[in-house]
UniProtKB/TrEMBL annotation:
Membrane-traversing stretches: none
Listed HAMAP family: Iojap_RsfS
Pfam families the record matches: RsfS (PF02410)
PANTHER family in the record: IOJAP SUPERFAMILY ORTHOLOG, MITOCHONDRIAL ASSEMBLY OF RIBOSOMAL LARGE SUBUNIT PROTEIN 1
Protein name (Swiss-Prot/TrEMBL): Ribosomal silencing factor RsfS
UniProt-listed SUPFAM superfamilies: Nucleotidyltransferase
Taxonomic source organism: Lactobacillus acetotolerans
Amino acid sequence: MTSKQILDFVIKAISDIHGEDTEAYDMRGISILADYYVITSAGSNRQLHAIANAIVEEAHKNNYTDYHIEGSRDSNWLLLDLSDVIVNVFTKDARNFYNLEKLWANGKQVELKKD
């Protein structure tokens, strides 16, 4: 499965659970860790975990099992490592605090389809 295909099912899962202010960055040729970095916000801790679960469900639907999740039930930030795609799901306050977008300023922002 290509990194673009992984990105596509990640964005679909986030959209299905109404992740907010979703951004994706194409880091190919810039980062050795991943091709794409994705960030989205959730209105609550419950929605944060629902988004992560939706991504895992989409991964399984696409026969993709190479992923790892960092964070706990009480976390305000979950990181999903899908090898070539890294996804950060934050509560709004945590996203504002960590401001990860500044780390990816050299990447090309991916235009995401609006449903």
